[in-house]
Design a protein that fits this description.
By secondary structure, the protein is α+β, with helices and mostly antiparallel strands. Helices cover 48% and strands 19% of the residues.
Length: 249
């Protein structure tokens, strides 16, 4: 596939702002008709464009949108969503964190903490979290592709504490529970005395590239509190989704 022709056609489709026909693409791109039609077919085969109504009128494909979202810089996402996370941290009076799926793992990329000087809180730290043993990771894993879930379920899993779930059936049941209620929990699975709750961010109903969560001492993060925070985070995740979609999609 000629990259220059491909980019030309993708530019035409993207800039049209609507479904666009093969003939219109040919005229606007000035690519010879047989070559243009052949390149469109190749782009369709690679899922970079779509024909949503099966009428030979094309739009940018979900696969390309996903690639674009994945390439959005962490600093841009953090800058955009910081006010929402700050407000959530103030409301919860707990640290709130943003995580991102990449390289078959999850990274915490941003943390907001309560601003009241009298507040005490747990800071989760930044960086990598295992997919099987942290709320921010399990929230994403539960709604991920079957192939990724099976890879984690069937593969070796590190036991961080006595509460870390490493048995396939046990973790599989938890992922199903997360799908049902919409949020994930981690109760002393990474570190004794620490609990967290997180929800996935479903951008454009495709890959769950992000999760947002909160963390605190396990003795104050009771089952009732985790349930309340989880349900509130589900609502906040919709606000996050709208921010990201309107700004980067």
């Amino acid at each position: 596939m000629n990259i220059e022709r491909m980019m030309n056609i993708l530019d035409v489709i993207s800039n049209s702002g609507k479904e666009i026909s093969t003939l219109e693409i040919h005229k606007l791109s000035k690519i010879p008709k047989p070559t243009c039609y052949r390149t469109i077919e190749q782009l369709l085969n690679h899922e970079l464009i779509e024909d949503p109504n099966n009428n030979n009128r094309y739009v940018i494909g979900d696969k390309l949108r996903t690639i674009t979202r994945t390439g959005t810089l962490d600093k841009d996402i953090c800058l955009l969503t910081s006010p929402l996370l700050q407000e959530t941290a103030k409301s919860f009076d707990e640290a709130v964190f943003l995580s991102r799926f990449r390289n078959n793992g999850v990274e915490i990329i941003h943390v907001e903490t309560p601003k009241k000087v009298s507040s005490s809180f747990v800071h989760p730290g930044l960086g990598y979290r295992p997919l099987h043993a942290c709320s921010c990771s399990k929230a994403i894993l539960a709604f991920s592709a079957t192939s990724l879930k099976q890879k984690i379920l069937d593969g070796p899993k590190k036991q961080y504490t006595k509460n870390t779930k490493v048995l396939k059936k046990e973790l599989e049941a938890e992922l199903q529970l997360i799908q049902t209620r919409g949020y994930a929990e981690c109760v002393e699975e990474i570190q004794d005395g620490i609990a967290s709750v997180a929800v996935p961010i479903k951008v454009n109903n495709n890959n769950n590239l992000f999760s947002i969560g909160t963390i605190g001492p396990s003795h104050t993060f009771t089952a009732k509190k985790r349930s309340t925070l989880g349900n509130e985070l589900v609502v906040i995740s919709d606000q996050f989704k709208q921010l990201v979609e309107h700004s980067f999609i």
